[in-house]
Amino acid sequence: MLGDKRANLILLLILVSLLVYIPKINVTKAESKSIVVPDDFQTIQEAINNANEGDTVFVKSGTYDNQTLAINKKLSLVGEDPTTTILAGWEGRPPINSATIHLNANDVTISGFTFKVPGHWGIWGSGNRTKISGNILTHPKPINLFGSYNNITGNNITEFAFSEAIHLTGSFNTILKNNIEGGHNGIITEGSFNTISENDIKSTFYQINVDGNSNIIFKNNMRKEGAYAAIWFLALNSGSQNIVNWNYWGDYDGIDNDSDGIGDTPYIINAENQDPYPLIAPITVFDAGLWEWTQYYVDVISNSSVSDFSFNPEEGDLIRFIVNGENGTAGFCRVEIPKDLLYTEGNWIVLVDGNVITPTVNEDQNSSYLYFTYQQSSTLTKTVEIIGTVAIPEFPSWTILPLFATATLIVILVRKRLMRTRTSIS
């Protein structure tokens, strides 16, 4: 009898420990070989030549002059820090049709560099599934690429004179979250099924040129400060066959009577085309993290500068960010929050620097939309906190059932072994 109680107690402790301690599940990927410049090779081109398919060439901080690099294999070229890892191009007149990086391969990644004048092209060539991200390009002709399924993300591009910041020829490409200022054309795409989203484009002659159909252009900030046209559709009748919406247009003069952050009248692009949902202020799309194998984003439309977004269920059922703007003027935010990420069973609480603000709330099946106003300050930042009652769980719910099943199986097996032991003893 005592043995049975002891066995049951042990089994109960095993079950409780399995259910209470839920380890985080990490997926381990095989690491490719890394080559370091200048530790392993003195020059970047030597490192590229000696790399195998899929390797990473890591370039330490420094200024690398007279660069005309050729990449003709699948690899990742990664700079230590984009502000201190500089590919300087040629001094004086560069070779004719030269490029700081010339691509002729698929599956190439380039990130973490500053590209500086006076080279001819910054990144030029052809390839599919190319990833160009997190670079600073102050170059006469920054990016010109032929191919499909390419991804140009999070680059800061300036001083590109009478050229275009990004020129992609191909289909199914993504141009996302790039900051573009100055020059002639911001973005040119020639092809179909391309996505242009979340880019901030200022002071260009033509901000986006589109030659093709079935392209999607949404959630971009097009300041149109002196620009000739925000969007120019090159092909005859191509505009009406592309999707253009949810963009901020610097010269939009409509109003927002219902306080949803969207203009009440369409933005007219030309006689045939319009943005039916023009934003009343610039939009910032924040990454709220990967939870239960789903990537979540929070959109903030605001006439303030918005930064330092944070969401962590361990800190509470809230999101937090910083705003600042022109001193003494009225600021506003319209925040879209996915319900699966954060919601409330009662009323939302909005705090601006600790002061309670009553928001206007709208909802649909998937999201909550909060609109609120406050006084701006250009000298002091303000902290915004939006508090709900239920945040997405820290641990994926789908992990509970397999662990419970495993614990149950262990209990059954241990009990059977104990039963056999008792039978053999008796």
Features:
3 domains; Pectate Lyase C-like; 10-stranded parallel β-sheet; mainly beta; 9-stranded parallel β-sheet; 3 helices; 426 residues; single chain; 41 strands
Overview of the molecule:
- With 426 residues, the chain is mostly beta strands.
- The protein has 3 domains: 34-275, Single-stranded right-handed beta-helix, Pectin lyase-like (Pectate Lyase C-like), CATH 2.160.20.10; 283-394, Immunoglobulin-like, CATH 2.60.40; 400-426.
- It has 3 helices and 41 strands.
- Strands 1-2-5-8-11-14-17-20-23-26 form a 10-stranded parallel sheet, with helices on one face. Strands 3-6-9-12-15-18-21-24-27 form a 9-stranded parallel sheet, with no helix packed on it.
- Strand 1, helix 2 and strand 2 (55-59) form a beta-alpha-beta unit.
- Helix 1 packs antiparallel against helix 3 (400-425).
- The chain is globular and about 60 Å long.
- It starts with a helix and ends with a helix.
**CATH superfamily annotation of the largest domain:** Single-stranded right-handed beta-helix, Pectin lyase-like
Count of alpha/pi helices? 3
Distance between the termini: 14 Å
**What's the CATH C level of the largest domain?**
Mainly Beta
Tell me, briefly, the overall form.
Answer: globular
The parts where pLDDT drops under 50 for at least 5 residues are 18-30, 395-401
Q: How many distinct beta strands?
A: 41
Helix content: 10-25%
As for the number of domains, it is 3
CATH topology of the largest domain: Pectate Lyase C-like
CATH architectural category of the largest domain:
3 Solenoid
**Structural class estimated from helices and strands:** mainly beta
Strand content: 35-45%
Major sheet strand order: 1-2-5-8-11-14-17-20-23-26
Provide mean pLDDT, rounded. Answer: 83
Largest sheet data: 10 strands, parallel
Rg over C-alpha atoms, rounded to the nearest angstrom? 27 Å
